[in-house]
Amino acid sequence: MILKKLTLGIFFLTLFNSCVQTTVLLGPAYTLGSTGNVYQAGLSYGSSKIVKNSTGKSTEENIKDLLQLKDEDSDFEKLIKQRVINTRKIMNLK
Question: For 93, which of 13, 49, 65, 88 could close a Cys bridge (C-beta 3.0–4.6 Å)?
Fold first, then answer.
C-alpha cells in the first residue's frame, strides 16, 4: 500500500512539476480571454519580462520604489507622492 502511494505521488509530482512555470502566463492569458486581443496580451507579457530583466524587480516593486518619499525630491514631487499615499489610505489600498 505504501509503495502504491509513493509511486502515485512521484507520478503526480513529475506530471505537475512544470505547472508553476506556466502561471506567469496567467495574466496575459486572462487578457487574451477577456478582450480577445492577442497584441495586448503579448505586449503585456513582453513588457513585464523586459522590465523584470532590465531592473531585476517586478513592475509593482518599481512603482512602490517610485512612490517612496526621498530627501532629494522637489516640493512638487513630495506633494504628489504624499497625495497618492493619502488617497491609498482613504481607499484602503496597500
Answer: 88
